[in-house]
Amino acid sequence: MEITVGTARENSVVRRKVRTRAAAVLLAGAVLVGASVGFSSGNARAAATPSPAPPSPKPSAPGSPNDAHQNGSWWVQPAPTPGSTAAARQYFILEGRPGTTLQDGLAVSNYTDHPITYYVYGADGYNTPRDGQFALRDHGYAMIGVGSWVRTAFPTITVPARTSTVVPISIAIPANASPGDHVGGVSGMDTAVESVQQQGNVQVGIKRVVAARLYVHVDGPAVGGLTVTQLKVTGSASFPAYVSDSDGTVTATVTNSGNLLESPKAHLRATGIFGTLIDRTVQLPQILPGQSIDFSQAWKNMPPFEIGTLHLDVTDDTASPPVTSSEALSLTLIPWLTLLVAALVVLALLVGLLFWRRRRNPPPVRPRVRRERPQRHERPETTKAAAP
Asked: Which chain regions cross the lipid bilayer (predicted)?
């Protein structure tokens, strides 16, 4: 089971630039796909190492859930920094050197009228294959990224009704951690099974999860990179050509080949002998370092015949300097079915014309010459008389 996060609108860029340690904020909504993960918006925040969280859970009256990652019944968010008057943090945005440990806390608030027991754990982030959106691995998945760096003081915690509790957490950056952005989340999952779904012969228990995103930037060389591969056009010309519309699809794979978050835009352009065929720009989902997403754009009213070039330029102009990658494809659109049918029709006309001309102007008939067989002349037989 995967935890998928659907965005309410386009994500902002969250990145650390070379020699700059400012971070922007991401925006997300809650989606339940076997489990739900809630996120909400916040303001930009510079990276900072937070003060240590309280050594043990301390229940208190829950605050407003409007700015928390919540599902309506309970919510989680980074614990407020003691003594700080700044607005509540919506995400963990941290930075450190390899081999260091960062201390923080996760605030868990229960708005129901009964106690709830939660698993608290770190999860790796990734881009979903289907639409490239941000998602978190489920509880029990073998974490190999930033999710494996998270240590919680209490693997499970019970929060009384209508109270909030802070769970101390630490993020232990490995000594061999690669530099750049590492993205995941700190999740709280209700241990109770919310519902049971029947999938074939197997019953699957559904548990609800809420998480706060975790951004850890590891010091070192920061390298932005994007790569476009496998650009192609699929689809076939309508039949007959130029009578009905043709539809096609342009697809490609966009990979974040650097170690920073990228929030690119894709500019798709096709030109041919009849001018510009398509020219559009679309915002792509934010791509995590090392992740790939599938680019797909429908091409309505694709011309049945054209020879030209298809260009796909992917650029993250929020980076400094901007990161870009391009791919081009020779475009040859030929309505083969229409041409085949047309060729068969022409061939049939030629054959019909040939027969028609033969019937109208038949070839002259040659007179048949009768050849008589020569007569055989028989010689009279000579009879010899018998000797007396």
From this structure: 333-356
